[in-house]
């Protein structure tokens, strides 16, 4: 996220990539305008929230017209820094890490995993999905944080904090944490935590306790 849009609330900012992906699809299918109702149906966010979100960045839909797709697209590109590729490092090339290296993220985003680290000698020195894997001992030496400001952590949780401390020392900007560990970082570093087991458990809990999905809408 660039720094020209400090007034956008965080909850709104988190929805931007979702909107962006859909607007990209609309744009490539040649659509020129979209209503908040259509957007709402596609991204499963209620239309009042969409209108409020869009009002923060000056996209004021007109009644009976909707929003201009090109305007939205250029706004999202600029705001999400999508004109430039953001390079990402991945640490921990286990099952999940390997899946990310093979998937990479170029299809939907301009983020790319450029470099990976592991401690397993069998993995070090190999390349998966075009991404070279180095030994974690070489982290500081190999990782140019001006070029690679973001790291994905897919290591065992016992290793997560130690690696985070090294990344913090090297002044990484953001960490996407897939381990169950809660990470301590200085306030200058942003951590987003995705605990897949907890998310799955929570989904199952909601299915059991709120079988009618419309009872509880997640953010
Ligand atoms: P696998 O089946 O390959 O072990 P996994 O996802 O089940 O995958 P984990 O034990 O979660 O395995 O480890 C994930 C990856 O993190 C493995 O490739 C492991 O070698 C690596 N790893 C373990 N400790 C560290 C560490 N301190 N630094 C970097 N990578 C590590």
Distance between the termini: 20 Å
Number of helices: 8
* Gyration radius over CA: 20 Å
Largest sheet: 7 strands, mixed
Look at the structure and give the mean pLDDT.
87
Structural class: alpha/beta
Q: Helical percent range?
A: 40-55%
Strand percentage, roughly? 15-25%
**CATH-derived topology of the largest domain:** Rossmann fold
**Name of the CATH superfamily of the largest domain:** NAD(P)-binding Rossmann-like Domain
CATH first level of the largest domain: which class? Alpha Beta
Small molecules in complex: adenosine-5'-triphosphate
Sketch the topology as an H/E string, one letter per element.
HEHHEHEHEEEHEHEEH
Total count of strands: 9
Question: How many structural units, i.e. domains?
Answer: 2
From the coordinates shown, what is the CATH architecture of the largest domain? 3-Layer(aba) Sandwich
Read across the widest sheet, the strand sequence of neighbours is 5-6-4-3-7-8-9
- Low-pLDDT regions: 1-5
Q: Which geometry do the CA atoms define?
A: globular
